[in-house]
Specification:
The protein is mostly beta strands and 208 residues long. Helices cover 0% and strands 32% of the residues. The protein contains no helices and 13 strands.
Length: 208
């Protein structure tokens, strides 16, 4: 039996770089608008819109909608001022009702590689894939993170035969994770990279 067992999605976790260099923990600090009222959790994919960090709603297309479905990087924490005027450093951003002057910490290295759980297309139940998943592009399944742990509920969707070649899909599997495999051929986690991060796209946001 695999140890540890992956029982639920947890978002994208930076582990290293595509070129095999170690991930040194570098992040970029970018603001979250004071009017933004959507929670962002550790491991959520985010985008930049009008200079601010926004949770990306990307699932199958990371190339066309710059406001909603683009990908810039992965959110790994935040600093904000709470309603008592205290500066808080936290794993998740709770929304503008409870946080002002918020600054997001984002892994935006286009060479970054992330560990993520695999789930079924119809639900958030963790499942397994064979090593044939390596080299395919994958769909993102969105989810609501935990206010207890601060962790995301984002995962990648197990592809079906004949899929995984669409260029618009947001991530590509570059390796499997043997440490949590159900057996020698069934893997519950993969290592992925962002396919179309905003930082590399020629098409940019309009100046607001």
């Amino acid at each position: 039996m695999a140890y540890p067992t992956v029982s639920a999605p947890y978002g994208l976790v930076p582990v290293n770089r595509v070129d095999f260099m170690p991930y040194a923990g570098a992040t970029r600090q970018l603001p979250i608008a004071s009017t933004y009222n959507t929670a962002i959790y550790d491991g959520d994919i985010v985008l930049v819109y009008q200079g601010n960090i926004v949770k990306s709603a990307v699932t199958t297309d990371s190339t066309t909608d710059k406001q909603n479905n683009a990908t810039y990087g992965v959110f790994v924490g935040v600093q904000y001022v709470n309603s008592q005027g205290q500066t808080v450093q936290a794993q998740y951003y709770p929304g503008n009702a409870a946080a002002t002057s918020a600054v997001a910490y984002v892994v935006d290295d286009p060479m970054a590689a992330f560990k993520v759980a695999i789930t079924y297309s119809g639900n958030t139940t963790v499942t397994t894939a064979t090593s044939k998943v390596v080299g395919t592009n994958l769909q993102i399944r969105q989810g609501t993170g935990s206010t207890t742990t601060g962790d995301s509920a984002v995962s990648v969707v197990l592809p079906v035969a004949g899929t995984g070649n669409a260029a618009a899909l947001p991530v590509r599997a570059i390796a499997v994770v043997p440490e949590t495999a159900a057996n020698s051929t069934a893997f519950t986690e993969v290592i992925v990279k962002l396919n179309n991060p905003q930082i590399l796209l020629a098409a940019a946001n309009d100046y607001a």
